[in-house]
Every structure is written in structure tokens, then in C-alpha cells.
Amino acid sequence: GLAIQMGKDLAAALSQKMGSEIKIEYVNSTWSTIVLDLQAGNVDVFFGMTDTPERRKAIAMFGPLSTVPVVALNGAGVDPGSTWGDYDKDTLQIATIMGTTDADVAKAMLHKAKLRALRSLAEGVLELQAGRSQALITSLLIGLDASTKVANAGKLVLLQPVQSAPSGGGAPRDTDGRFAAFAQQWSDAYRNSGRPQTVVTDAIAR
Questions:
Q1: pLDDT tens-digit readout, 132-191
Q2: What is the pTM of this model?
Q3: DSSP 8-class letter at 100
Q4: DSSP 3-state of 135
Q5: Is 77 left (phi over 0), alpha (psi -120 to 50) or beta?
Q6: Would you say 43 and 170 are in contact if contact means Cβ atoms under 8 Å apart?
Q7: pLDDT per residue over 20-33, tens digit each?
Q8: Where are the alpha helices (DSSP H) in the chain?
Q9: Which pairs count as long-range contacts for 124-128, CB under 8 Å and 24+ apart, including other chains?
Q10: CA 101 to CA 96: how far, in whole Å?
Q11: Closest CA to 48 of 105, 102, 107
Q12: Which residues have CB under 8 Å from 193's CB, separation 6+?
């Protein structure tokens, strides 16, 4: 997906800078634990994070790399409409993933719907499959991935008015800041090259 390809691109650039090949190891994490995993050094780089003051206090942020809108992935047979107002009904239970800016957007936009904060995408998928929530509010790319995992999933809806935020990456704070500086220089050149749009388009097409 998006994060895997961006990770490969960053590793290739870092390998060139260091003069030796960087080998990638993929590590499982969740939105509720990723900042702690970065702080502990369990994860070296994570993509798809919105830069917030809270995150910047805890980890090294770089980017932005792309802008990703917030969407609703509906459960089977569910089709409230296409606006935030259509989903803001007290008859609807809406799932979100804790620790994401998408969850913050849902809280700001949905006042009547019952919001259910879950720890991971896997829990969100189970929530839709079981019919406990009628929709999952998430980012477009996560929603596309989730839609392939939910049996008989409903529509993926780009909610209007569109809510989106710049998305970048996070890394542990190093003592001298050299890696963070490199990652920021790389992300500026990467964004200006137009490569993120290609990566995002490819991820959507899969």
C-alpha cells in the first residue's frame, strides 16, 4: 500500500545517502500505540500521520507528503447519504479508530450520532461485519484497504463538505536530529517531484 511504497522510497534515498543498502523490516502497530512504539524505538518510521502539536512534542514529524480526505465506509445495506449531516443521526452508531485525526474530525462533525472509539482497524472491520456500527469514519486510503476486508461492505463515501488534512511521517527523536532533518529534506523533494500523487493513485487503483 501507500506506506509500504513510501517506506521503500525513503529507504532507497537513505541507502544512497549512506552508501550502503538499508534493509526494511515491517512491524505491526496500531494507531493507539504507534507514538509509543516510535518513542520506544520499536518502529523507525511510520507514514500516514497528520502533523499535530501533540505528536510533534512526542516524536519527530516530517512532511507533508500528501493530503488525504476523510471518508465513511458503510456496512452492508447502509446508505445514509453523502454529507456529514446525513450521518449525524441519533439512530446511527459510527465507529472510529482511537488516536487518529479522522476520529477527531468525526467528533467535531458528528454531534447526534453515537460514536464508538475502537483501538484498531481490525476492530473497526469486525464492528461493521457484526453490524454493531453502521459506518466507519477513516481516511480514504485506510477505507480502501478496509473495504477489501469487510464481507459485503457497503459504499465508501467521500463525505461532504470534504474534510482533509496534510499527511506526513513520524520517527523517533534522535539525539542530534540528523535523521529527522534528512527525512524532512527527502519529503520536500519527494512532494515537489509529484511522486506522492503517483503512489496514492496506485494505492487507490489496487
A1: 999 999 988 788 878 877 877 899 999 999 998 788 999 999 888 999 999 999 999 999
A2: 0.75
A3: -
A4: strand
A5: left
A6: no
A7: 999 999 998 888 89
A8: 2-18, 34-40, 53-58, 84-87, 101-109, 121-130, 140-147, 178-193, 195-205
A9: 124/95, 124/96, 124/97, 125/149, 125/150, 127/95, 128/73, 128/75, 128/76, 128/95, 128/153
A10: 10
A11: 102
A12: none
Could you give the CA distance from residue 13 to residue 45 in angstroms, rounded to a whole number? Answer: 14
Residue 160 has what DSSP assignment?
B
Torsion of CA 98, 143, 149, 51, to 10 degrees: -40
The set of residues, in sequence order, having a beta carbon less than 8 Å from that of 77 and lying 6+ positions away, is 154
- Bridge partners (DSSP) listed for residue 69: 164
Closest listed residue to residue 30, CA positions, set 42, 16, 13: 42
Using DSSP bridges, classify how beta strands 93-97 and 114-118 pair: parallel, antiparallel or unpaired.
parallel
d(CA 123, CA 103): 14
Q: Grid coordinates in use for 40?
A: 520506544
